[in-house]
Design brief:
two-stranded antiparallel sheet, Rossmann fold, binds adenosine monophosphate, 28% helix
Length: 175
């Protein structure tokens, strides 16, 4: 079976979560299969460019494969968290949600100038969250070299928002 099929077989669709009309892609069963986890990490690594200086993971499901990829590549892992969660001095970026605004943050000293980074999250929907993460990277004068996602919801056209930051957008499984 191909990696895409294995990922799709493992993902559980949960209708109407967290609210009516949303089909939630539950990736938790993937973490119960250590062999598949290893294959996914290798799948991401194979697709990534060389000369990466850090992996940036978006709270909270972006931490899961984010840290595994970073660790296997021997690279620093940098956390992007929701507002108010990081303990030290932060930079922040607001972005709009379907209703209202949200804010994400990164520690002020996490990235060095001119570093080439990869932004990772579990799922690309509208692209608003990953785009805000890209703005945080740029605020630190670092470069977005690539985005990686386990899943892309193609019909939401999130790639269109990200392409101006990097056209290297790696999604292992599409719906
Ligand atoms: P967006 O900013 O619209 O691209 O949303 C991406 C973020 O929302 C990611 O961190 C996802 O984990 C989460 N998300 C959005 N839609 C879904 C969905 N249908 N299933 C699971 N997670 C989702």
């Amino acid at each position: 079976m191909s990696l895409v099929d294995e990922i799709k077989n493992a993902i559980r669709d949960v209708p109407d979560f967290p609210k009516p009309g949303i089909m939630f892609k539950d990736i938790t069963p993937i973490f119960e299969n250590q062999y598949l986890c290893n294959k996914i990490v290798d799948g991401f690594i194979k697709a990534l460019p060389n000369n990466i200086d850090a992996i940036v993971g978006i709270e909270s499901r972006g931490f899961l494969f984010g840290i595994l990829i970073a660790n296997k590549l021997n690279l620093p892992f940098v956390l992007v968290r929701k507002s108010g969660k990081l303990p030290y001095k932060t930079i922040s970026q607001e972005y709009s949600l379907e209703y209202g605004n949200a804010k994400i943050e990164m520690h002020i000293d996490s990235l060095k100038k001119n570093w080439n980074v990869v932004i990772h999250d579990d799922l690309l929907a509208t692209g608003g969250t990953a785009e805000a993460a890209a703005q945080l990277v740029k605020q630190q004068n670092a470069n977005v070299k690539a985005f990686t996602f386990l899943v892309e919801l193609e019909f939401l056209k999130g790639k269109e928002k990200l392409i101006k930051h990097s056209n290297n957008i790696i999604c292992l499984a599409q719906y």
